[in-house]
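Quick one: structure tokens for this chain, please?
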Amino acid sequence: MRSVLLLALVALPGCIEVAAFACRPGTCDLDGRAGTCEPEGWCSYPDDACDSGRRFESRAPGALGGACVEPAVATTGSTGGGTTRMTDPTLSPTSSSTTSGRSEVSGSTSTNPPCDGHGCGWTKVESGPLHTCALDGNGAPWCWGVGASGELGIGSNATFRDCPAAPAGELVDQDLLSVGGHTCALGPEGLHCWGSNGARQVDWTMGQNQFLEPHPVDLSEYGTPTSLGVGIGATCVGIGNQLLCWGGGATEVDILDIPAPVVSVKVGDDHTCGLLDDDSLWCLGSDAQGQLGGGNGDQSNVPVSPDLNGQAALLLDVGARHTCAITDGDGPDARDVKCWGDNRALQAGGVVENQIDAPRDVSGNLVSGAWLDVAAGEVHSCAINEAGEVWCWGTNTYGQVDPHAEDFEQQLTAARIDLEPAIDAVDIAVATTITCALDRDARWWCWGCLEPWMVSESGECTVSPPTLFEPC
């Protein structure tokens, strides 16, 4: 078999108020921990200090936050996989819709009916370079942005959409979503992918150039995937102690044996990294910008384990040519955000270096804390903490770091972004010119250049403040 490394070288109408979609069965894995969706609508996680053996996540509202699950209800709920940022069912947003699928926040309570999960109650957001997708409360993917190769999955290769549309095929109950140059989702009926297939990155067995609708990918001879990563020209899944990847024009799957099950896999332009269930990280592929975090600057077909200074890895993301992780630090309230690799746009959090060869804490005021999520893009990165604060660093040419900046120069060090309207973020994703977040009310916000196709046409784009996205 060829090494996986070679593959990486290719190169709502009205549904705003959230009812009980804070969690659903199959969406309570976090940082590699299998959780339970409790009847109250919030995830709990194993804790031997509780009589029930489970404790509510700290983001649960009111007295539930961080409290032990009562033994009487300890046998209810469902465990399951798929990393999902939860939302607060006790809060109800106020908004008014526009026909474009974007909304402005108003000062009165919405008269729209409660969210039934269809096109609202967002649970996960993911971005590729030029398009963004999210899972709604029913686990259905919705996408917007550039769709010239079918990556939106709407049955056509429309140049772009400026509001979310649901891919054809009525996919629901998807546990995992990954967006790169194409799009994939994993659910009870297996893996579906759509978009460009020029490098056989959607389906290695088929030579057609693109898939305009979700296409089932047959992995039955290999087993059931539990992790999913999509890059530019490649797709990877974790199945047990193996990583399977395809793309690069090859007509077969590459299989790499891994020391432990792959909890999370992320694919960049030319490198791949995985988080294992023993809390270790490994990376392989190009190390031209130090993105492997422990290589020698050359291509590596053998997994490299980045030196995290004895800390356990909790969460991983990969940008085009850099890598970021959240590590356990000195405990849940003292986690660290580390990045390494390409830093020419300051996207890896260094102040002056063009590249960072080993994992290092991000520069600036990004001190140890209750960090919840990190997103690495092409030229900028962002992180959020349990207080819902958004911190970003890197290129700000189109307001993707800070849309309210006096000038749109690089953000030299990580800084808290004072967004207006304010966003209590629980999940974050970054594209080339855009940052998107889900808030505690399960609403979907994006800011920066919301028309990225304009950049390629004219080099110019209007900077937009945080804008509420709804299906059109």
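Residues 453-458 form the longest helix (6 residues).
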